[in-house]
Amino acid sequence: MLENYFPVLIFILVALVFGCVPIIIGRLVGPHRPDPEKLSPYECGFEAFEDARMKFDVRYYLIAIAFIIFDLEVSYMFPWAAIFKEFVEADQAVKLFGFIEMFIFMGILVVGFVWAWAKGALDWE
Asked: 19-47, pLDDT tens digit by residue?
């Protein structure tokens, strides 16, 4: 029974080697010249040397969340595009189902885009 998992173990080991060896080689071979500015914490979109309790604009996060949502929705179109040839070669009922399925999905995407636009999440001043 355990011999069935041997290829999985080899796959994990190869993945670890491909992931860890370049990091170790870069650490050993690359220059290491730390200074206080390089070692300081960094938050994307904000100055690194300001008060941590400052007020910030929420629209920055709205755009990031909108990007993630639309990026994920677009990634759901790839499986549909991969089987598009099967839709074209199928009978009329399957063609209609595939078209309606993507039409509903694109409709949801457009409604989300219009909502984000109406809320002002895409406006940046």
From this structure: 999 999 999 999 888 887 777 666 655 55
3-state secondary structure of 96: helix
Structure confidence by residue, pLDDT tens digits, 60-84: 777 787 788 778 877 888 888 888 7
Give me the residue label for tokens 């860890």. Answer: 20
Domain boundaries, the chain: 57-125
Helices (H) and strands (E) in the chain, counts: 6, 0
Backbone angles phi, psi at 80, to 5 degrees: -65, -40
d(CA 78, CA 85): 13
Rg (CA), the chain: 24
Give per-residue pLDDT as tens, 96-108: 888 888 889 889 8
CA distance 115 to 66: 10
Read off the tokens for 106. 């694109």
For 37-65, give the DSSP string: HHHS---TTS-TTS-TT----THHHHHHH
